[in-house]
Amino acid sequence: MESVYPPGPKNVPADFTKPSMRYRWKVIFVLGSLLLTLALYLALIAVSAWGFYQLLTLPWPPRFHIGVLFVRTLGMFCAGLLFLYLFKGLFKRQSAERDGLVEITGQDQPDVFAFVR
Fold first, then answer.
1. Would you tell me how many other CB atoms lie within 10 Å of the CB of residue 52?
2. Would you give the DSSP letter of residue 113?
3. What is the pTM of this model?
4. pLDDT digits (tens, 9 = 90+) for 21-71
5. Does residue 93 sit in helix, strand or coil?
6. How does residue 3 score in pLDDT terms, banded at 50, 70 and 90?
7. Could you list the residue range(s) of the whole structural domain that residue 44 is in?
């Protein structure tokens, strides 16, 4: 093993790899930003569904107005389309290509397996 990998450095402080408080705050900020983004995304889905429902259940005016019908239908179409577009994004998956992957075994690469062990 020593012939393949050089020896580690000498005199390394014990807390060399300990994360600093500044790093921890940055991690908390990133996680908070991700949670805030998810909350905003879910809120947009809820608002678009609520808007579609409100336009669908809104009472019709006593007289038939073509303008009201057009605006209401356009609003329902836009709210429904926005809801479907955002909702679809929750279940979207990317397929990983496995063409370039190569399986290695302990017989083929004993040094790698010894290093991992």
1. 20
2. H
3. 0.66
4. 999 999 999 999 999 999 999 999 999 999 999 988 888 766 767 777 788
5. coil
6. low
7. 21-90
- Residue 108 Cα to chain centre, angstroms: 37
Q: Provide the 10 A C-beta neighbour count for residue 79.
A: 20
Residue type, 47: V
Phi, psi of 110 (to 5 degrees): -65, -30
Asked whether residue 98 is domain-assigned, the answer is no
Neighbours of 48 (CB within 10 A): 20
68: helix, strand or coil: helix
Q: DSSP for 26-63?
A: HHHHHHHHHHHHHHHHHHHHHHHHHHHHHHHHSPPPSS
Kindly state whether residue 28 falls inside one of the protein's structural domains.
yes
In a domain, 64, yes or no: yes
Instruction: Quote the number of domains for the chain.
Output: 1
Return the structure tokens found at 75: 């609003």
Q: Is residue 102 part of a domain?
A: no
